[in-house]
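This part of the workshop introduces the protein records we will be handling. The structure tokens are whole numbers drawn from a learned vocabulary of backbone shapes. The record below serves as our worked example for the rest of this section.

===
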Amino acid sequence: MVDALVADVESRLVTPTPPDVPVVLRARPGSPLARAGSNVVPGAMPTEGPLVDTFGRVHDDLRISVTDRCNLRCVYCMPEEGMVFLPRTEILTFEELTRVARIAHDLGVTALRITGGEPLVRKDVVELVRQLAQIGFADLAMTTNGTGFTRLAPDLARAGLRRVNISCDSLQPERFASIRRRGDLSVVLAAMDAAEAAGLTPLKVNVVVMAGVNDDEVLDFCSFARDSGRLVRFIEFMPLDGDGHWDRSQVVSAEDLLAKINARWPLVVFDPEGGDSAPAERYRFADGRGEIGMVASVTRPFCGTCNRLRLTADGAIRNCLFSDDELSAKELMRAGGTDEEIALLLRRAVWGKLPGHGINDPDFLRPVRSMSMIGG
């Protein structure tokens, strides 16, 4: 069996050619490198240079999910009961995670974000951060629900973490607990203080806005941003909930949010010096007291400038949060694949990327995996 897998790996090698000679990738039907299917545009996929797709988008941002497990059950992410998690043997080891990260770095990836599930439930996550930091990414960040962050903040900073995003969907304790189905608002607010004390800044606060649930707190969160100096990012509710109950009527558009905020505090568009690859549109309050961000994935997709690539906890490479097309780095590594083959797999994943996620198309199908299974 192992010999057969290795033979399949070997069949995927591309013979090196001079940079100016077009290369057509050949792969055995059904093998991991062939599973991008009809999304791959025929032609010359580059085997040198940055990770570029057929639309010229260069991918230099990798999101790595280190676990599909979480200690919360947020309504926009996971079902309250019955969640089935991956067997631990199917989760990538630290060695496998850092190997893919290192190869991606060699291909021009400069920013790495650690996600989950909840990344802090992964045992010895500080050591993983240390190993990833040693690779040399220009930016190493994490997204967390904050519940276990305070005690680990100093160690994570010393290990090499540079920034953190903390999720917080309500400033009202009872509503906060209702949205998360578990957890304590005071713990998360303390985590924000701990992040700043450890130098993990600029701190971003992620707020998923849902109609009839917490959209009446938008101005409260703006006041929070103005008083604290933290960047609050309002995120449109996306079709990635584990319950599968998402409906467009639950989406509060960025346009409506901006109109509401601007009527209270005038806003000006903010383009940070040197650019910002984050998906949020950023706005400063005209009086100079802080800023907010809008992640309008549903109503104002930013697919045309997308530079992100994802690695799931079980080793699948995904070129889009909303696409079910996956190529298995885990299968390749555990079959004895070389670094060159893993690099080729990353290139193939990027090369197969569609122009957009298609949420607003009539034939859109929501992803089979929910957010916690993909990694944010």
In short: The domain at 2-15+59-374 is CATH 3.20.20.70 (TIM Barrel). The chain has eleven helices and twelve strands. Residues 69 and 117 are 5 Å apart (CA to CA). The first helix runs from residue 2 to 10.
